[in-house]
Amino acid sequence: MPRIRPGRVRTKNTNRREALKLSSMAPEDYNVRPGEVKSIACPDCRTWRRIMGEKVLKIREHCISDKVAEGEKHVLCPGTDQVVVIDINVRRWQVKQDRLLREAMPQGNRRAAQQFYKPLPAPAAPVSRMNAEITLESARQAYLAHRTRIVGRGRSAARPQGCTFCVGGQHCPDGAILARRFVFALQAEPARREAREQRERQEQRAARQQSAPEVRRAQWAKRGGEPVETANNRCAERIAGSLSEFRGPQLPQAPQDPEGHDRRQAELGKQYAARKTSAPSAACLSRAS
């Protein structure tokens, strides 16, 4: 395989023009990428030519016409041996050119500079950490299932074997969570039972209130009738001068047994007098002591 040698300037002649600075040209009219052949669009003939040299850079010798092989006269381009000076920041120029190339590409061919990978789904939480409705029975069964597991097959399938880390009062992390949950459920069971009974009583009371009209209709059909309806609808005239229908001159003003009434009043008077005389004597004894 032939070895590719870098291009070199075989003459020290120049076109005696002022050095061409890349900063005065359009960024798309030259290519100075590292690792690639340096080339430039000749300012005179506007054709892409190679930049030769290592220290002193020149535009390679070229002619104006591209048809010299067909017999046309070989006429050198005035831009031959034009000195080129790289006075730009190559890295910034390369970044800008790469951005322009990406923008010029069709949308279907574009590709992000940074690859974004879909994150892996998080592992499912263990059963001991799942948030669900916890009851006393479910907490108890979960704790017992952790401490006692059925292992083996066939005849040895009935041989229980608990968690190897849960021994006696010691628990593994999952066993400690299950045990703590069972204790909390056990402590909260009375309050939960009371709340459940209260809710049932409220539901029964609401059901009775909804069925109250039917109950009243049944009672009215059993104990009501024309006499009760007549008594409720009867209106009696009130006697003039009385405060209410229960007070008036037609009510009895004297006791039914006058002698018995007088005898009771006399006994009450004696008891009151004896109680009144005994109170000062007790006060005198307390002072004397």
Account of the protein in words:
- The structure is a single chain.
- With 289 residues, the chain is an alpha+beta fold.
- The protein is 40% helix and 8% strand.
- The protein has helices at residues 90-104, 136-147, 173-210, 212-223, 226-233, 258-288; strands spanning 20-21, 30-31, 39-41, 48-52, 57-59, 83-85, 149-151, 159-161.
- The strands form two sheets. Strands 1-6-5-4-3-2 form a six-stranded mixed sheet, with no helix packed on it. Strands 7-8 form a two-stranded antiparallel ribbon.
- The longest helix is centred in the middle third of the chain and has 38 residues, at 173-210.
List the topology elements.
Layout: E1 20-21, E2 30-31, E3 39-41, E4 48-52, E5 57-59, E6 83-85, H1 90-104, H2 136-147, E7 149-151, E8 159-161, H3 173-210, H4 212-223, H5 226-233, H6 258-288
Parallel strand pairs: 1-6
Antiparallel strand pairs: 2-3, 3-4, 4-5, 5-6, 7-8
Helix pairs in contact: 2-3
* Major sheet: arrangement of strands: 1-6-5-4-3-2
Return the string of H and E elements.
EEEEEEHHEEHHHH
Mean pLDDT: 77
Low-pLDDT residue intervals, each spanning 5 or more residues: none
Cα gyration radius (Å): 58 Å
SS element count, helices: 6
- The SS-based structural class is alpha+beta
**Biggest β-sheet description:** 6 strands, mixed
Principal-axes shape call: elongated
Estimated helix fraction: 40-55%
Query: Strand share of the residues?
Result: 5-15%
Measured distance between first and last alpha carbons: 143 Å
Q: Report the count of strand segments.
A: 8
